[in-house]
UniProtKB/TrEMBL annotation:
GO terms for biological process: nervous system development. Residues 179-316, 437-545 form the Fibronectin type-III domain. Keywords: Glycoprotein, Neurogenesis, Repeat, Secreted, Signal. SUPFAM superfamilies: Fibronectin type III. It comes from the Eukaryota. The lineage of its organism: Eukaryota, Metazoa, Chordata, Craniata, Vertebrata. It comes from Piprites chloris (Wing-barred manakin). This is Protein NDNF.
Length: 559
């Protein structure tokens, strides 16, 4: 059914006149009275565009009205109206005013005398409400008309200010603004894991017809399902974040906010929004209708919504949402500790999970020894379920504990850094045979700036009251390697893996007076203006080395 806005003004005068006469003679409902009152202000009202999606902002408890006119046709012609609430439930209705064909005929003959106008006022006309709806679902009204008629759409939000989109079309032959949904629009959950959920859904007919301009987008959140894409975007914005439309996200990553993360891989766009109620993910995967959602949290309920999006118009249609709960995380594996055996554990900094070690005591007194190899580690020890020690460790740490025979100790380790950490653990009932050597107060290496030359440097380190072996190693490095070398240093590793060319010397020393337990060494044969990395290894009675903190020194350029 074709609408011509250039030709509707003349019939409109007759509709208004007929409506005024009819409103005097016939009893009306309040909605109909409001409808007729609005006709007086029609020229100041809003006309609903045909074939275009219109965004309408509603103030709480203030109705808003839009109009459109359909012209007379010899055959019944269809029209459709689709309303999409973008937040709270709304009320909306359609009212229609029809005038008789005879009155329209008289008015359009061009005779403007008073008598004929009076007759046209007496012509019968009707005002009726043809549709009412209240809710927050996307709703479409399909109508047929063959008479000239004036239609009014009235919208009302009683909860709060909100916005909606409205789409009117009288041309049902040129395709759909909104992508079509299949006969069965449900999303099926076909697989659930600890951190993944696999979904599938039936193809949209629009995808089969226009594959190049249609795509599927999936929304994942922990709160509830959304009935439209604009409702989801509104909810995310209300949490304190600006969320660009799906199409803008896929084309313009520069629009992303600081709380958003965009991941583009294998033709798949993922937007992760950090909101107060958790993570909201928006994933667009082209025309695939099966997808496995990765990186979910165990034992968590998630809600999944699939939208089929027209890339040319940015209009979308929503499948029926679903939900699933990921499986509970399996109990962590527990490693048994044995007397005197050293266990080295690498801890994942990204997952921040505890690594568990268990020990059943065969003596009343036991000693746990920890040597931090890399990063930072949190140690938590329980005895028969009760906490006996819990702290962060650095360097070497001993815990001497008393209990009963067959007490069960559980040691839990966790990296406190974002990168991997590493630690060596030993438990032993033999206090007189420590695993690690006696350590000095500090494991730092000191260099003397005044003693530096073009081809030598002098370093010093602390010793102990126990005679031990110390070995010095050096390695030439570049400026851009310094930070990486110092951060990635494996403090538990011994010198056995290093080239023999890096070894400088080994020496024994001790002093019963700790104030004098200091040794120095001058390393010669170096290149001028060059950076060197120096390491000192301490070997105790058990033969297990302890590495001092690496020291970087640069020789002088000129002497």
């Amino acid at each position: 059914l074709k609408m011509s806005w250039l030709r509707f003004y003349l019939p409109l005068h007759v509709l208004m006149a007929a409506c005024l006469c009819h409103s005097i003679k016939a009893p009306t409902t309040s909605s109909q009275q409001s409808f007729r009152t609005d006709l007086f202000n029609f020229y100041h009202s809003l006309i609903l565009a045909d074939g275009k999606e219109t965004t309408i902002h509603l103030m709480k408890d203030i109705p808003k009205r839009y109009y459109f006119v359909l012209e007379e046709s010899r055959v019944l012609s269809p029209f459709t109206i689709t309303v999409t609430p973008c937040d709270v439930p709304i009320e909306w209705s359609i009212l229609v005013h029809k005038a008789s064909a005879s009155s329209l005929g008289k008015e359009t003959q061009g005779d403007h005398d008073t008598q004929e106008f009076s007759q046209s006022q007496k012509a019968p006309s009707t005002v009726s409400t043809i549709f009412n709806y209240k809710g927050n679902s996307v709703e479409t009204y399909m109508g047929m008309s063959s008479h000239s008629a004036l239609y009014m759409l009235e919208f009302l939000s009683t909860e709060r200010d909100t916005h909606i989109t409205v789409y009117l079309t009288t041309d049902t032959t040129s395709g759909h603004l909104y992508p079509e949904l299949p006969m069965d629009p449900r999303i099926d959950v076909i697989g659930v894991g600890h951190t993944t959920v696999t979904l599938t859904w039936k193809h949209s007919p629009s995808v089969l017809k226009h594959r190049e301009s249609i795509q599927y987008c999936l929304l994942v959140n922990e709160k509830h399902n959304y009935k439209s894409l604009c409702a989801a975007e509104t909810a995310i914005r209300s949490s304190g974040m600006k969320l660009p439309p799906t199409l803008a996200l896929s084309l313009s990553p520069y629009l992303l906010e600081p709380q958003q993360v965009m991941i583009l891989s294998n033709s798949e766009l993922s937007i992760i929004n950090k909101v107060s109620s958790g993570e909201v993910r928006q994933i667009c995967m082209g025309t695939r209708n099966t997808y496995t959602v990765p990186n979910l949290s165990p034992s968590t309920q998630y809600y999944f919504d699939v939208f089929v999006v027209n890339l040319l118009t940015n209009a979308s249609a929503a499948y029926t949402g679903t939900f699933a709960r990921t499986l509970e995380e399996p109990e962590p594996k527990v490693t048994e500790l044995k007397d005197g055996k050293v266990v080295q554990v690498v801890l994942d900094g990204k997952k921040q999970k505890f690594y568990s070690l268990q020990y059943q005591a065969r003596h009343k007194k036991v000693q746990f020894s920890f040597q931090l190899c890399r990063g930072q580690v949190r140690v938590h020890i329980t005895k028969n379920g009760k906490t006996v020690a819990s702290e962060n460790i650095s360097g070497l740490k001993y815990f001497s504990l008393k209990g009963k025979l067959l007490d069960t100790y559980l040691v839990q380790l966790r990296s406190t850094e974002e990168f991997n950490s590493s630690v060596k653990v030993q438990v032993s009932p033999h206090f007189h045979k420590p695993l690690f050597p006696l350590l000095p107060e500090s494991l730092k290496i000191k260099s003397f700036s005044k003693l530096r030359t073009c081809n030598s440097v002098t370093i010093a380190w602390l010793g102990t009251q126990e005679e031990s072996k110390y070995c010095v190693y050096k390695r030439r490095i570049e400026e851009d390697q310094v930070w990486r070398e110092l951060q990635s240093a494996e403090r538990c590793s011994g010198p056995e893996s290093r080239p023999k060319s890096e070894k400088v010397l080994c020496k024994y020393f001790y002093d019963l007076n700790l104030q004098r337990a200091v040794t120095t060494e001058t390393i010669k044969g170096l290149d001028a203006a060059t950076l060197y990395l120096f390491d000192v290894y301490l070997f105790g009675p058990s033969g297990i080395p302890v590495r001092y903190h690496s020291k970087v020194v640069k020789t002088r350029k000129k002497c």
